[in-house]
Amino acid sequence: MSLPTSFPKSDIRVLLLEGVAPTAVESFRNAGYSNIQVYDKSPPPELLHQEIAQAHIVGIRSRTHLTAEVLSHGRRLMAVGAFCIGTNQIDLDTAELAGIPVFNAPYSNTRSVAELVVAEAIMLMRGIPQKNAQCHRGGWSKSAAGSHEVRGKTLGIVGYGHIGTQVGVIAEALGMQVIFHDIETKLSLGNARMAMGLDDLLERSDIVTLHVPETPATQGMFGQAQIAKMKTGAHLINASRGTVVDIDALAEALRSGKVGGAAVDVFPAEPQGNADPFVSPLVGLDNVILTPHIGGSTLEAQDNIGLEVAAKLIRYSDNGSTLSAVNFPEVTLPEHTGSTRLLHIHRNVPGVLSQVNDVFSRLGVNIDGQFLRTHPKVGYVVIDVTATQEQAAQVREELGRIPGTLRTRVLY
Ligand SMILES: NC(=O)C1=CN([C@@H]2O[C@H](COP(=O)(O)OP(=O)(O)OC[C@H]3O[C@@H](n4cnc5c(N)ncnc54)[C@H](O)[C@@H]3O)[C@@H](O)[C@H]2O)C=CC1
Ligand SMILES: O=C(O)C(=O)COP(=O)(O)O
Questions:
Q1: In which element (H, E) is residue 409 found?
Q2: Is the predicted ipTM greater than 0.85, yes or no?
Q3: Helices 389-401 and 352-363: crossing angle, nearest 10°?
């Protein structure tokens, strides 16, 4: 991979996909970036490859898969922004080894997902999906049969992280009993109680809601065996990732009545954009609330995500700070007014730092400040110097020759 050069902001191409919020575009413009390309959906592979090949900064949401193959087209790519929470759609290790930090918005849509889930819990307990469908067909079924208040019912939360805990807090305010299961030991909020494992949670819950990330361990974690452990007629909510649930097993359980109802926001295969068709074995089942992956899609959340992730990308581009990167050594940096800043990203092998320092002493450039952080495979060192542009360019060239160098950049 050829090493990118440092150049004016107007030459830094920012590619924003999947309808990233206008607040992100404004943030980039306000920071002096004018070369911004925006798409309202995830482009098909060929176009994505072409666009990635031109881009220095890429912003995506959950739909665009930045695999090793896609990233290999990003010859100039210096940073990726996931304008969402999940980063499972990005090959984080490949990005790190290519010297590309990835940033996300870990909290900005948490509340939006939690509100939707609690609303769905109420709807499911009242049998609203079926009643709504009947009314739309001209039917009328005024009856209390199978309809319940949520007060006093048990909500089982699988994955008690940011979203899971928020769901629990709101559900408790409605008088629900909250139990949870997580692979980590978690502090219970309010009166929530940890279940004695997933099976225990499934056996006790009137509603089960999933809030795990997509990982090798969570893919397919909810299938026939887990459904069999649920109370007959209990409900399932999935606003995590589509791969977590065996959707055919769920469809079957919804038809048989083993699962009373479901609210599903995420699917193993989702359309690329709004004009593309949606196909799922759950389509046509009256006892299911289907939503098009909009758990985090509120204007409040999207505006905040746009600001938050754009700010992180701009900070990295302008200042070199990798604070809160999800795949990269985190370096927090002061401003560098009055000095030139060099960034050196390298494989974390013995001897690189001494070779870096050697370049400065050989070229007679004094170091004003140095910041280093390492991960097992990658090291990131930032060096502030007082140097002319010519000296900085010369240093950078020499730094690029050090074996193990992944990327260098100069911030004037
Ligand atoms: N539908 C939508 O629009 C949205 C979906 N999401 C999804 O929700 C997921 C969760 O988001 P957050 O709560 O912010 O993440 P988080 O990282 O704060 O919480 C996830 C929790 O799941 C636990 N966990 C991981 N593997 C597990 C396993 N095998 N079994 C049980 N627990 C496990 C973790 O220990 C953690 O406590 C995201 O990764 C994303 O995929 C997030 C935002 C919007
Ligand atoms: O934040 C997440 O992880 C989500 O799933 C939301 O994704 P989106 O930005 O709506 O494509």
A1: strand 405-411
A2: yes
A3: 150
pTM for this model (two decimals):
0.95
Neighbours of 20 (CB within 10 A): 25
pLDDT tens profile 153-197: 999 999 999 999 999 999 999 999 999 999 999 999 999 999 999
Q: 176: CA distance to ligand 2 center in Å?
A: 27
Please confirm, yes or no, whether 270 is among the known catalytic residues: yes
- Given 293, 315, 341, 346, which residue is catalytic? 293
- CB of 242 within 6 A of ligand 1: the answer is no
Q: Give the CA dihedral 297, 77, 5, 348, nearest 10 degrees.
A: 110
Query: Distance from the CA of 86 to the center of ligand 2, in angstroms?
Result: 6
Nearest ligand 2 atom to alpha carbon 86: 3
State yes or no: is 293 an active-site residue. yes
Specify the 3-state DSSP secondary structure of 410. strand
Active site residue 115: no
Token digits for 407?
């990327």
Sheet holding 36-38, edge to edge: 36-38, 14-16, 57-60, 79-82, 102-103
| 61 CB within 6 A, ligand 2 | yes
